[in-house]
Amino acid sequence: MALAWTLSGVGCAAHLPRTGEPLAFLERSTISTATQHDQAFEARPAVHVVLHNGLEAPEILEQGGTAAVALLSFLGDFRIWRFDSAPVRTPTYEPRARLQIFHVALLGAPEDPLDPVDRPHRLVGALSFDLAHRSNGADGCALADHVRVGKSDFACEPTTDPPSTALNVRDGSFTTNYGAAGLGVRWFPGSGAVLPAGSALSATTTFEWNFPCHLDACMPTQMRARYGTVRALWSAEAELPLPVAPAWTAPTGLRVRVGAEGSVHLATADGRRPWTEFAAEVAVLHQVPRGLDLGLFVRRHQGPDYLNIHFEERLDAWIVGLVVDPSPASALVPSRAP
Predict the structure, then answer these.
(1) What angle do CA 174, 81, 274 make, to 5 degrees?
(2) Lowest CB count within 10 Å: 36, 128, 206, 313, which one?
(3) Nearest residue to 292 (alpha-carbon basis) of 46, 80, 14, 94
């Protein structure tokens, strides 16, 4: 509410996602708990501010075409640990600017694209370009059992003999500036398809490059050697209305989403091999009056922890929680003519 008031007060066109506004491939907000013994709860908010949305032109979604979308986002990760002191440790703060170039194509389009019976296959593709800063806000040495003597996160002296080489997951600094480029594709099956009306299949891939520099806000060379210069991310998911039956066509507002995602960290140094993480998820969703998708999800995560400086620790756990989607797939399908 405060953000919306501020944006309207300065008289700019920037706004939070509106009800039914066509958007796609944006991070979702979640709050969850995990089976990992030392974790209690985790909140991962994703706040998106739309600066320009060319998809709002009616002819783009109804007839096909190309449009641009510009956004500013804040992504966070706040994990509550089961420790006696400082239960919230090394949270993630990630402001980001994103430009998306969309192209909408209608395949086998009927004479009337809004015909509720003869539905065309709808294919939506998007190129995305990001500039972002990711940090955990901590100022401790990057390595455990070290005391800072300089500005760099690795300009520290050990307090143990031999010196520890483990990362300082208690209050160690983790920060990077990165650029990213990605591709997203979403397909809505038309009439005659095996999948029922209201279904959507999506896939994305993104490459993040951590900028090399020696400023305080950039990832030190030693950290890039362990984390990787490039992170490749991917995801694939299918969304189906409930219940799923060949004779069923009328939507009830309930949908199930099944998906998987992962990442590969590349260009590590010191003989380190690329390392990967993987997660599979099932969610049941319902569109609330505000136009957002709200639901319950169950996820299985395998591999390194995704929480900033914890990336050398394992997170093999079941995660259960609530999810809010600011860009439901249904927003990319124009309303049917009565």
Answers:
(1) 45
(2) 313
(3) 46
Tell me the one-letter amino acid at 271. Answer: G
Q: What is the DSSP letter of 328?
A: -
CB 143 within 8 A of CB 164: yes
SS (H, E, C) 13-46: CCECCCCCCCCCCCCCEEEEEECCCCEEEEEECE
CA atoms within 13 A on the CB side of 192: 7
Provide the strand spans (E) within 190-229. Answer: 200-210
Classify 333 in phi/psi space as left (phi over 0), alpha (psi -120 to 50) or beta: beta
Mean pLDDT by 10 residues, the chain (338 residues): 43 79 95 88 95 93 93 95 68 96 85 62 95 92 93 91 92 92 94 82 96 72 89 96 56 83 85 85 83 90 93 94 92 66
Asked whether 158 and 132 are in contact (CB, 8 A), the reply is no
**Residue 128 tokens, joined:** 């995305």
